[in-house]
């Protein structure tokens, strides 16, 4: 893989020095990820679950041209199948934004794509011994740190419950260290997302559920009281340097995605709870203690709209929140982070999961799939990518890619890339 | 020689700026090596040296480099073994205030702390490797070394014969770098690169990697302290 860095054409954006490292990206990558795309993104990569009866039925990375000036705007320009269906889920860039790591929650394979030519990603390495080497399963969040990739797992290979941990690899894909989620001092052992605030030397983690639940049919699971007890209810603040927990905060109902404010003067993060349908603020109180505080309600919690992905604006004044079961996106004003106000609502379709916005917030993309066994059935199993412009008041649809009509599968996680040519040293 | 003059002025400026912070840094470094478990702190937000583990991230790379003379090549590995090494890339004409100068600041502060603490003498070395072998010749690198390096706190300034010798080292360290072009498509003297600073242990393992916006000399010194305590 290292040899590929010798290619004569590379993404200039990924080579930018210091200034671009100061804040996270468009808008939820690790703050250690370089080369934010602050202008127009050229490509959108969608980590897609293979689906029985759809195309080659394999998991794949789908690349869509999202450059409005391109003749291929809104079209699928590339697709690379990785073989089999292993519950493709999330992805993450390395710190140099050269490689995209993509994980599968069932068979635990991790595919490393080289984006030296972002229009044609290609697999350069596959990690197949994640469970054997770490004891964990369900590689979920991929979070870059300098020269390394931090991975939050969801479960473990022995009991398939929620006790899990964090794994660190180097950029070559070699295992560096393994860290268990704490069971002491209020820790419940679950894991889901990672968010690092380097300025404070802290890392925040959230909690979900184990393999048995996330691989179960959703209809079956919600009728099983024992299964519904097996969800996380905590967030943990860690000393990032030492990887030691420093505070466990009770956040009931499976707190999922973590979004730190990108403003350097801020010192707080947001999350949404899937089962209780609440927004939470994590901040330091006047004594410097990390605390979690409920700030708003998402839809009607009694109907379990199931909040899933969230996306914070670069100015930290707005938050997109998708609710899966009612297929709705909501925009919250969090200019006062203590009080989240819902100011916009739009029905996107029968189901919606992921949301990804450009750094300037003017373009917002949505996809549909949550988990293969949690997606809706029959006609309600819509699978698409929808691209919108956002003027602060209304989402205006620009194009839709129907992932069933295109014979691709279930559309899940999205990442941007951009093309700029420069000559790498030595070429 | 124009860029050498600029760099020299830059170094003098840095030297004056860093002096004020040296007393505290020196005290910290002293506490690391002298008092054992009463290590200094890297700042209120970071753990004390020796209270955390620095994992082995990757082996430091090798490759052929030049120091002092164009005629005598050296293995880069000879500069990353036997001592704790702080390693990074730079180039003499780097003008991005958020790029190389930040690395210089951190290196300068660490170098000063090492110089002032006898317990750290000959245990820590600093190494800069040029990204611009055409401009940064061994002779010019010797100028930097002669201006800064001391026997108790060696600071090497390395270069390579050409970019083709440099590229594999960059690849191994996952440091992308490319030369910027002007509007006419001609290469300029600006080299875009992701600034990374590597802390390497005596056995030539990379144990920590810092990027410019999170580059703090106090943290580096705490990490050096952690490695030294590990050796004990």
Outline the structure in words.
The complex is a heterodimer of chains A (427) and B (232). In chain A, 4% of the residues lie in helices and 42% in strands. Chain A has helices spanning 130-134, 211-214, 218-222, 225-229, and strands at 9-11, 43-49, 60-65, 76-81, 88-93, 99-104, 110-114, 122-127, 136-145, 148-156, 165-170, 175-180, 194-197, 202-205, 234-239, 244-250, 259-260, 268-273, 278-284, 290-297, 307-312, 318-323, 328-333, 341-347, 355-357, 363-367, 384-390, 395-402, 410-417, 421-424. Chain A is globular and about 55 Å long. Residues 2-25 of chain A have low confidence and may be disordered. Mean pLDDT of chain B is 83; it is low at 1-5 and 8-42. The termini of chain B are far apart. With 232 residues, chain B is of the alpha+beta class. Chain B has helices at 2-34, 100-116, 138-148, 163-172, 217-231; strands at residues 58-59, 64-66, 73-75, 84-90, 124-130, 155-158, 177-181, 187-193, 196-200, 205-211. In chain B, helix 1 (2-34) packs across helix 2 and helix 1 packs across helix 5. In chain B, 37% of the residues lie in helices and 22% in strands.
Helices and strands in order, then pairings?
The complex is a heterodimer of chains A (427) and B (232).
Chain A: E1 9-11, E2 43-49, E3 60-65, E4 76-81, E5 88-93, E6 99-104, E7 110-114, E8 122-127, H1 130-134, E9 136-145, E10 148-156, E11 165-170, E12 175-180, E13 194-197, E14 202-205, H2 211-214, H3 218-222, H4 225-229, E15 234-239, E16 244-250, E17 259-260, E18 268-273, E19 278-284, E20 290-297, E21 307-312, E22 318-323, E23 328-333, E24 341-347, E25 355-357, E26 363-367, E27 384-390, E28 395-402, E29 410-417, E30 421-424
Antiparallel strand pairs in A: 1-30, 2-3, 2-29, 3-4, 5-6, 6-7, 7-8, 9-10, 10-11, 11-12, 13-14, 14-15, 15-16, 17-18, 18-19, 19-20, 21-22, 22-23, 23-24, 25-26, 26-27, 27-28
Chain B: H1 2-34, E1 58-59, E2 64-66, E3 73-75, E4 84-90, H2 100-116, E5 124-130, H3 138-148, E6 155-158, H4 163-172, E7 177-181, E8 187-193, E9 196-200, E10 205-211, H5 217-231
Parallel strand pairs in B: 4-5, 5-6
Antiparallel strand pairs in B: 1-10, 2-3, 4-9, 7-8, 9-10
